[in-house]
Design goal:
Blueprint: E1 2-6, H1 10-21, E2 25-30, H2 36-45, E3 49-53, H3 54-60, E4 63-66, H4 73-80, H5 82-85, E5 89-92, E6 97-98, E7 106-107, H6 115-122, E8 127-130, E9 152-156, H7 159-171, E10 177-179, H8 186-203
Parallel strand pairs: 1-2, 1-4, 2-3, 4-5, 5-8, 9-10
Antiparallel strand pairs: 6-7, 8-9
Helix pairs in contact: 3-4
The chain binds NADP nicotinamide-adenine-dinucleotide phosphate.
NADP nicotinamide-adenine-dinucleotide phosphate (NAP) binds near residues 7, 9, 95 and 137.
Length: about 220
């Protein structure tokens, strides 16, 4: 499959590398087609990895990942071009974080709205599925932990898209995948990121992920 990755940060690099490891062709998009970080990432991975602009990556991908600074999502999706994402699955890994307070981040969108819903409104023709936003990039692929594979929580409006993403998460080594419903459930998934960060900061445990236990 051809995968477009919008973002050259740690998440874009980690998920892009994971898709290449699974045999997919990946194009990483950035504001500049000559972004040094993206070029170095592609050089290290070989011919299945390439780079371009946000528009190049959006056009290339049969499936596309959004892995950009949450505050920049609007600018990024306008540059990518909603028409290039129409009909495609767009995995939204982002969190709308506000780092301006100096301490742990806060959500810049909350209450009766969320980053995930904003993304879906910006690209109405895409099938947005929120995923990967509740875990650090180091554990996004093959998250091997002593307690077994952790669980992923997803949300989105398109049932078939969520099935595809669930199958993909299994390929990535995740345990149970919990479908929380429509994209408005991003209102609850994005605060989970803050729980993860606060817990990681206080305990200095960065290799951690959520799991629901049942009997
Ligand atoms: N880091 C993690 O472990 C982690 C875990 C879960 C979720 N997340 C979420 O995943 C997303 C990506 O995180 P990250 O740490 O990989 O990277 P990041 O530093 O949050 O974002 C980097 C990307 O954002 C783009 N960007 C930054 N400012 C921009 C602007 N003004 N206009 C357009 N694009 C801009 C950059 O573009 P260029 O390529 O042009 O530089 C780059 O591609 C974030 O929303 C984050 O909250 C992160």
């Amino acid at each position: 499959m051809k995968v477009g990755v919008l973002g050259s940060g740690d998440v874009g690099k980690a998920l892009g590398k994971a898709f290449v490891a699974l045999g997919h062709d990946v194009k990483m998009g950035s504001r500049s087609a000559t972004n040094e970080k993206a070029l170095a990432w592609a050089r290290a991975l070989g011919p299945k990895a390439s780079v371009g602009t946000f528009a190049d990556a959006a056009g290339f991908g049969e499936l596309v990942l959004l892995a950009t600074l949450g505050e920049a999502n609007e600018e990024v999706l306008k540059a990518a071009g909603p028409e290039r994402l129409a009909g495609k699955i767009l995995i939204d890994t982002t969190n709308p974080l506000d780092h301006s307070g100096g301490g742990p981040p806060k959500l810049s969108v909350s209450g009766n709205d969320s980053g995930g819903e904003r993304v879906q409104r910006l690209v109405p023709g895409a099938k947005v599925v929120k995923a990967f936003n509740t875990v650090g990039n180091a554990l996004m692929f093959r998250p091997e932990l002593p307690g077994g594979p952790p669980d992923m929580f997803i949300a989105g409006n398109d049932a078939a898209a969520k099935q595809t993403v669930t199958a993909l998460l299994k390929d990535f080594g995740w345990g149970e995948v919990h479908d929380l419903g429509g994209i408005e459930s991003s209102r609850y998934l994005e605060p989970m990121c803050i729980v993860w960060v606060l817990s990681a900061l206080r305990g200095q445990h960065w290799n951690q992920a959520f799991k629901l236990l049942r009997k």
